[in-house]
Design goal:
about 140 residues, elongated, single chain, 2 strands, two-stranded antiparallel sheet
């Protein structure tokens, strides 16, 4: 059972992170689910729709719709699977990579500017240390 102090910190942290996440989403131009698919393809390379669905923890039918929307926008392409003719691989197109980079840039850019405008040097140092702690908690 967590201590009352840890519970208070957890509640305050959850609230602050939720607010920050909502604010960063204001910078988005591509829906979050689509950005997640583009990000997965960028990190892991070409995948089948089923593999993408498993990676994103959604139903294959939902992923098929998402991939279809991304294809309509020319953000992803399909190609034949090299070893299984029944399957196809979805991969990030050049336009998809450009859109993903721009999306990431908007998010990071807004947050970097807010950090620069709002925080003192000491607070920036504290935030950098906190980021490492948050990463550690996230991987627990």
């Amino acid at each position: 059972m967590p201590t009352p102090e840890a519970a208070v910190i957890a509640a305050e942290l959850r609230t602050a992170m939720s607010k920050l996440t909502r604010r960063v989403k204001h910078e988005d131009r591509i829906p979050l689910g689509q950005v997640a698919v583009l990000g997965a393809l960028d990190r892991d390379g070409a995948m089948t729709t089923s593999e993408l669905a498993a990676d994103q923890r959604v139903r294959p039918q939902s992923m098929a719709r998402a991939v279809g929307l991304l294809m309509e926008q020319n953000l992803v392409t399909r190609r034949a699977h090299p070893t299984d003719g029944r399957k196809s691989l979805v991969e990030l197109s050049d336009a998809g990579r450009t859109a993903l980079d721009a999306e990431r840039g908007r998010r990071v850019g807004w947050l970097a500017q807010a950090i620069e405008d709002e925080l003192t040097d000491r607070e920036r140092t504290l935030l950098a240390e906190s980021a490492a702690l948050l990463e550690r908690l996230a991987t627990r």
